[in-house]
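Reader question, answered in our methods column.
A reader sent in the components of a multi-part assembly and asked whether the whole thing could be modeled at once rather than chain by chain. We filled in our standard form and ran it. Here is what they sent:
COMPLEX SIZE: two components
ENTRIES:
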Amino acid sequence: MIDFLQTTEGIITAASVYLLVGLSWNLVFNACGYLNLALGQYYILGAIFSYKLESSWGIHSPFLLAPMIAISVGFLGFISERFMLRPLKDRGLSPLIVTIGINLMLLQLAKSLSPGLVIRPDTFVNGQISPGGVHIAYQELIVWGTAIVLTAALFLFFRRTDLGRSMRASVDNRRAADTLGLKVATYATVAFTVSAAIAAIAAFVVAPTQGSAYNSGDLIAIKAFMAVSIVGIGRNGGAVFGALLVAGAQGYIARYVNADVSDIIVLIGFLVVLYVYVVRSSGDTLLPRWLRVRKPSTAVEAT
Amino acid sequence: MSETAAMNGSAPKVATTDIGLEVQALVAGYGELTVLREVSFAVAPGQLAVLAGPNGAGKSTLLATIMGTVKPRGGSVKLGAEELLGKPVWERTKLGLGLVPEGRGLFPSLTVWENLRVAAKAARLRGDEAEEGIERAVQAFPIIGERLTQKVASLSGGEQQMVAVGRALLTDPRVMLLDEPSMGLAPIIWRQVLETCRTLADEGRIVLLVEQRVMEALEPADRCIVMQQGRVVRDGPADSTAVSLPELASSYFDSGSQG
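And here is the structure of the entire assembly that came back:
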């Protein structure tokens, strides 16, 4: 039982990260209309900047580090959207391609700033609590708390502020938002900037718990993408559920089945979900005929 | 309905007044395509003008150019002495333009109140002004007041149309532009919308109604402006016998070259 609870505790930490990065996916998807395939690099730069600021500048206070990281990585996001994605998109280049390019550039940046493969910034507070024999590091509580606070903050921002409501409106009906004179393009920049900052903060709080490889950003981003796309990309409502589902599947399989295959099993599960989702929503399938899910219309055709 | 207004409208070209809406030699289009070719007309306060014409005649483009979402290539649009061209949408809204866009242009997953609030902020109304504006919309359509916390998607078509018109009233506009408000409405609701248009004109506003269901729209109207291939081909009283003539009929069946 303790073992199960301890596994669950780790799952909650992982889910917190997937939730934050998942919300970052949604922010850009909703406001900009494309997937930011560079998201994993903004994420990992949060951990790398935190390490750099600690080791080179001697800044250790998380209350100083957090805003510095949010602002610096947010600024990278701002530059990416305003001076690369938007102008190139306006010239007809696919934003997906541009984000892949940005991903490669930022990966090089991450590599050059990283001292080795794994970066492990200092924990904010050492120690742990052990309710009922389950160990929970203070740093992990900080991860949970960050996820709760930022999720709630985003929720309130979209519900209670004029800017947030206007951003929701432009997602809802972009053409009408243009007609009203809402600054839809500015919202895209704001969303991209905030999304990069949130992803970076996620890595900033979680990297001290077990360390992060400088090239692990994409893997986290993909899992977070799984978490949000299971419930439908762009829908923040189900993001918590999706994050727990992906982290749970991965954590329990790793503990009780096989640690080496848990990522693969989760990925396969995700592909199945995505396939069913795509088939059900579009009716299209890329599979050969003998593998297709049978639908009433094709059944009639076949008979 | 309103005889005096109908008489005013019988003049083919309304003389420039210092308070009316005056469009002069307006040219606009998209890329290579020229949609408006020197469109000119003027509407005086208190007048309800129906803008008719086949698809592709340029009616929606005209409204978009007046509103500021399409950039013109030439001409002028004046509200009173004020030149509107070159001003951003929010400033035109503040100066007194209210638009009910085609398809209503509402935000279905937002509540009625949020829809109104977003529009008020888009027009850069300050706190008090925004509240007053929403109050004005509610007074015009009390049913909006009962639905403030409901999502727009849950409203009936007629209620949604009221929200769309109410939203345009936020700034107490001098000019109301309505683009195909009859779309998707039951006949009885459509009639109410027309009555609302008449009331808005009787309150001293300029009402410009773009409509495909011309014959019904003409009943309460003062003027009828017919566009064809980016030009005004008829501008006169909203007398259905005068309008149900060759120009209108042919304009509906002949052209359509511009999709």
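What stands out: Residues 2-32 of chain A form the longest helix (31 residues). Residues 40 and 220 of chain A are 7 Å apart (CA to CA).
Send us your own complexes using the same form.
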